[in-house]
């Protein structure tokens, strides 16, 4: 367990986690179901979060296009979230980047499609009457 100590605190002593525990506590307390947080649970949550982020980053790096540049890019993370079944739950949080013009075009097409569907439905209702 000695190799788990990653960061150092202000006094120079080694810590078990690198993430700021105070921030994690605030995030955990933001849930209405949580009334109090045990210090051990806080540290374990921080460590689990660090391990998850490390796994996500290494998986994205290995399977991404940034490997040639020796860099991890946002698009690598977004591709991992979209293509990997394990990380599918992150697809909404890490969407693929698209140009604003492309997005506006998609919105316009969607509106036109909805209008067509509404016209068809109202036409069917009139025919039935």
Automatic annotation (TrEMBL):
<feature type="compositionally biased region" description="Acidic residues">
    <location>
        <begin position="112"/>
        <end position="129"/>
    </location>
</feature>
<dbReference type="GO" id="GO:0008623">
    <property type="term" value="C:CHRAC"/>
</dbReference>
<dbReference type="GO" id="GO:0006261">
    <property type="term" value="P:DNA-templated DNA replication"/>
</dbReference>
<keyword id="KW-0239">DNA-directed DNA polymerase</keyword>
<dbReference type="GO" id="GO:0046982">
    <property type="term" value="F:protein heterodimerization activity"/>
</dbReference>
<keyword id="KW-0175">Coiled coil</keyword>
<protein>
    <recommendedName>
        <fullName>Chromatin accessibility complex protein 1</fullName>
    </recommendedName>
</protein>
<dbReference type="GO" id="GO:0005721">
    <property type="term" value="C:pericentric heterochromatin"/>
</dbReference>
<dbReference type="InterPro" id="IPR050568">
    <property type="entry name" value="Transcr_DNA_Rep_Reg"/>
</dbReference>
<dbReference type="InterPro" id="IPR003958">
    <property type="entry name" value="CBFA_NFYB_domain"/>
</dbReference>
<comment type="function">
    <text>Forms a complex with DNA polymerase epsilon subunit POLE3 and binds naked DNA, which is then incorporated into chromatin, aided by the nucleosome remodeling activity of ISWI/SNF2H and ACF1. Does not enhance nucleosome sliding activity of the ACF-5 ISWI chromatin remodeling complex.</text>
</comment>
<dbReference type="InterPro" id="IPR009072">
    <property type="entry name" value="Histone-fold"/>
</dbReference>
<keyword id="KW-0597">Phosphoprotein</keyword>
<dbReference type="GO" id="GO:0006275">
    <property type="term" value="P:regulation of DNA replication"/>
</dbReference>
<feature type="region of interest" description="Disordered">
    <location>
        <begin position="109"/>
        <end position="129"/>
    </location>
</feature>
<keyword id="KW-0539">Nucleus</keyword>
<dbReference type="GO" id="GO:0003677">
    <property type="term" value="F:DNA binding"/>
</dbReference>
<keyword id="KW-0808">Transferase</keyword>
<keyword id="KW-0238">DNA-binding</keyword>
<comment type="subunit">
    <text>Heterodimer with POLE3; binds to DNA. Component of the CHRAC ISWI chromatin remodeling complex at least composed of SMARCA5/SNF2H, BAZ1A/ACF1, CHRAC1 and POLE3; the complex preferentially binds DNA through the CHRAC1-POLE3 heterodimer and possesses ATP-dependent nucleosome-remodeling activity. Within the complex, the heterodimer with POLE3 interacts with SMARCA5/SNF2H; the interaction is direct and enhances nucleosome sliding activity by the SMARCA5/SNF2H and BAZ1A/ACF1 interaction. Within the complex, the heterodimer with POLE3 interacts with BAZ1A/ACF1; the interactions are direct.</text>
</comment>
<dbReference type="GO" id="GO:0003887">
    <property type="term" value="F:DNA-directed DNA polymerase activity"/>
</dbReference>
<dbReference type="Pfam" id="PF00808">
    <property type="entry name" value="CBFD_NFYB_HMF"/>
</dbReference>
<dbReference type="GO" id="GO:0006334">
    <property type="term" value="P:nucleosome assembly"/>
</dbReference>
<keyword id="KW-0548">Nucleotidyltransferase</keyword>
<feature type="domain" description="Transcription factor CBF/NF-Y/archaeal histone">
    <location>
        <begin position="18"/>
        <end position="78"/>
    </location>
</feature>
<keyword id="KW-0007">Acetylation</keyword>
């Amino acid at each position: 367990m000695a190799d788990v100590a990653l960061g150092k605190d202000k006094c120079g002593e080694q810590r078990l986690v690198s993430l700021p525990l105070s921030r994690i506590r605030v995030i955990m307390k933001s849930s209405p179901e949580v009334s109090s947080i045990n210090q051990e649970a806080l540290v374990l949550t921080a460590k689990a979060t660090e391990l998850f982020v490390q796994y996500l980053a290494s998986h994205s790096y290995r399977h991404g296009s940034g490997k040639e540049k020796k860099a991890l890019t946002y698009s690598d993370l977004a591709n991992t979230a979209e293509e990997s079944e394990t990380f599918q739950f992150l697809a909404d949080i890490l969407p693929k980047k698209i140009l604003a013009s492309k997005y506006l075009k998609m919105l316009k097409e969607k509106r036109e499609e909805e209008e067509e569907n509404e016209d068809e439905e109202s036409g069917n209702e009139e025919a039935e009457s």
